[in-house]
Structures are given as C-alpha cells and as structure tokens.
C-alpha cells in the first residue's frame, strides 16, 4: 500500500488555510493509503517558541486532526521529536545536500528576513529535516498546500541524490499531492498575502477554533472591492479578494467556483458574505467545538500521541538501520 506522510507545525492559530489546504484533504485520503500524520515540533523550533505554548499547541494540532475527521485508529498520529530518526536522518541527508539547493528556498528568504546572518542554522536546514520526515517512512505521497511545493521538490532531489550516490533505489521519490481548489488561501485583509499563523492581525484569518460570532465578524470585515460579484470565473482576474472569498466558499461547499458565481454573479458582497458566514459557521463551527473539547482532554490526546509514537518509532528504527547499512555506518 502506498504511504502518505504530512505534517503541521505546532505554532498556534491553526487557520482555514491549514484546514482547506491540508488537513481536510487528508481526511479523504486515509481510506486509500497507510497514513502518517505528524505534528512537526522540531520544525516549530526553527523560530523561537515558548515551551509551555509549544506543548499546548502540539496537543491542539493533534485535536485538530481528530476533530477534522482523521481516525486515530486507522492512521498514525505522533509528534516528530518522539522519533529520533527524524533528526538522525536529517544529518545524514544534509551530507548529500549542496548549499546551492538550499539557497534557492524562498521560504527561508521570507522567514530569515533582512538580516540573513542572524537566521539560525535550523531555519536554513528546515527543508532537509522535512525531506528526512518523508523519507524516514519511505512515504510515496505528500499532501500539502501550494506553499510547500518547493520543499517537496527538494525532498525528491535529495532522495535522488541518495539513490545515485549509493547506487540503489532505496528511497521512493515522494509525489506532492496539492489537492482541491483552495491550495493557497489568502489573507482576509490583503488578497496578495497568504493566510498565515504569524500575521499579527487576527482578522486576516479564520481560525479553526473561532466561534460563530467571531467567524461572522471576520467575514463581514473581510476586504473586498466595490464591484458586485462577476458571473464568470474570468471576471475574478485582477480581483484577488473576491477570488479568495469565492474560492473559500466553493471549497467549503464542495462546489466549483463557476457554480458559485452562477448563483451569486451580479450580487453585492454584503449578500454573498451573509451566505459565506452561514456556510463557514456550519462547516467550521462543529470542528472548532470538537477541537476545544478534545484539547481539554489531555489524557486522551496524549494517549493518541503515545500510540502513534510507538508505531512511527518502529518503522523509523527499521529504516534507519537499513540506511546506515547502505551508507556504511557500522552497527556493532
Ligand atoms: P504550517 O502552518 O506552515 O505548518 O502548514 C501546514 C499545512 O498547511 C501545509 O501543508 C501548508 O501547505 C498548509 N497551508 C498553510 N497555509 C496555507 C494557506 N494559506 N493556504 C493553503 N494551505 C496552507
Ligand atoms: N514544512 C511544512 C509546513 O510548514 C510542515 C512539514 C514538515 C511537512 N515536515 C513535513 C509537510 C513533511 C509534509 C511532509 O507546512
């Protein structure tokens, strides 16, 4: 059976982009693949984190997976730092990764900011750790949002470099799965920026834990332009905020954008936003409530993570031994 690996960083403010771009797609895939869903706490540490918050957010992401419909009995759910193979394999793969490949990574450039010399080695090596996450389990498919595409191409390149160097076909080249229409959900305040956990304005995003009133307020305040909605998809060109809201609506409703515009074309945003509030409350509301309930049940969440860590740890340990043998690392 083909294997899926994917992950979310426990950095707080899980939002609609994480849900539509990633987690919701995983729910559909769990029947057809052996699925491993990770909470990538080592990746979170590439930027400063408060230890208590990191623990809290690790449980919160676990709760989000389960609340969104991922079955902890059918899938492996665990936090990255519990399986030593991630860090270990990242080191080994780092020895095969040219700096030139890392220097192309746009996310590093965004996160490092202007003072590159102050950025940490961990942030620079982030994509190598991500390649290790995937390859440690010999995953074949990786469902993510559009912003991770470049990192996945690098993971494929690193897998290829290993296979060539050691004249083997040990690592499968992982396939990105960038699914659905909402592969890049944009900020509600600025249609040119992606919706992000780190945006300082909470009005830029719908959080997975927002209650009905908050969802309604944020949607009503979302930036739009003064024109009514177009009747055709082509009419969304050059109107990023309109495009974003229509895409969100279509994805939440499981309809095409053309179909949504067939209904709302020519109407004012005030009317469309009213319908979007109802839809968002109906779809996100129950998930948020379940997330809050599960997050409070620490024992239940920790039991899921413990079970997941055992299963992931077994696979990881087996593969690490194989990799060490291939690379010539003696295991006396
Ligand atoms: P992160 O929040 O960076 O840990 O991302 C976790 C997952 O959510 C990854 O698969 C991302 O590609 C996806 N994701 C994050 N932000 C967005 C967004 N604005 N639109 C679509 N997918 C997103
Ligand atoms: N870098 C990913 C993100 O920020 C999270 C991640 C880490 C990941 N390791 C992964 C995603 C492995 C898929 C596979 O969104």
Question: Can you characterise this structure?
Answer:
The protein is mostly helical and 332 residues long. The protein folds into 2 domains: 3-183 and 298-327, Rossmann fold (3-Layer(aba) Sandwich); 209-293, Tyrosyl-Transfer RNA Synthetase, CATH 1.10.240. Helices cover 55% and strands 7% of the residues. It contains 13 helices and 5 strands. It has helices spanning 16-29, 41-44, 51-68, 85-94, 99-103, 106-112, 121-136, 149-165, 212-221, 240-253, 257-264, 269-296, 298-327; strands at 3-8, 34-39, 76-79, 141-143, 175-177. The strands form 2 sheets. The chain has a 3-stranded parallel sheet with strand order 1-2-3. Helix 3 crosses helix 12 (269-296), helix 7 (121-136) packs across helix 8 (149-165) and helix 10 packs across helix 11 (257-264). The chain starts with a strand and ends in a 5-residue tail after the last helix. The mean pLDDT is 97. Adenosine monophosphate is lined by residues 8-9, 17-18, 21-22, 144-145, 147-148, 183-185, 194-195, 197. Residues 5-7, 9, 40, 43, 130, 133-134, 142, 144, 148, 151 line the site of tryptophan.
